[in-house]
């Protein structure tokens, strides 16, 4: 069982499953499809667990929000993304109106009961109406799933914390990729995942498994 207490104390980190929304970050074709520009192969393995959480959250009448990162065809909204991510900057990925920015077909998303959110940066909160959407529904806790753990998922969790939402980051419903050497050595996907989860647990909120979260949701009827 994951320990959900503040480091060096016996104080439990806050999380209110009865007032929580599920955030499914960037489970789209440009990240999950085989041979995709930003393929995160581990992301495909998350689908059964994320679909399970979608069913649990939806069954309790709580919000499910699926995000996609999208940029205009003319690149007018790219900003620094143009320089940090050449595939996106050159129009080879995350382009408005292409199939790459659509949700991966095996994701159990129902637009009649869920929210599809377009974002322009890593965080689902930056430049979007997500905070207002959640506040209007009395939500004070968010569940973070999807890809990639160390970038868009972590950025969303960080922005949630800055807005005083309690964060539950699902360890086995997030995935990432390895990082090439930028001067300090290369890191495997497993190494990046382990560090990102540790960082989130120390600084942003709870980290736990799908099973642990399902127990909390089940007790919050």
TrEMBL record:
It comes from the Bacteria. SUPFAM superfamilies: Isochorismatase-like hydrolases. It is an enzyme of class 3 (hydrolase). Its EC number is 3.5.1.110. Pfam families: Isochorismatase. The keyword Endoplasmic reticulum does not apply. Residues 20-208 form the Isochorismatase-like domain. The keyword Nucleotidyltransferase does not apply. This is Ureidoacrylate peracid hydrolase. It comes from Amycolatopsis jiangsuensis.
């Amino acid at each position: 069982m994951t320990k959900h207490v503040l480091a060096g104390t016996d104080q439990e980190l806050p999380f209110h499953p009865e007032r929580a929304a599920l955030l499914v970050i960037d489970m789209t074709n440009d990240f999950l499809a085989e041979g995709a520009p930003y393929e995160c192969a581990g992301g495909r393995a998350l689908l059964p667990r994320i679909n399970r959480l979608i069913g649990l959250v939806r069954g309790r009448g709580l919000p499910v929000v699926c995000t996609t990162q999208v940029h205009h065809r003319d690149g007018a909204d790219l900003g620094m993304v143009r320089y940090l991510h050449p595939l996106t900057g050159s129009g080879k990925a995350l382009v408005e109106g292409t199939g790459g920015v659509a949700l991966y077909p095996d994701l159990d998303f129902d637009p009649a009961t869920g929210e599809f959110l377009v974002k322009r940066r890593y965080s689902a909160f930056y430049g979007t109406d997500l905070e207002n959407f959640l506040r209007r529904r009395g939500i004070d806790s968010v569940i973070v799933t999807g890809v990639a753990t160390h970038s868009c998922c972590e950025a969303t969790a960080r922005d949630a914390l800055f807005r005083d939402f309690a964060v539950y980051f699902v360890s086995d419903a997030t995935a990432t990729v390895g990082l090439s050497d930028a001067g300090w050595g290369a890191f495997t996907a497993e190494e990046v995942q382990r560090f990102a989860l540790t960082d989130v647990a120390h600084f942003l909120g709870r980290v736990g498994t799908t099973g642990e979260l399902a127990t909390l949701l089940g007790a919050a009827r």
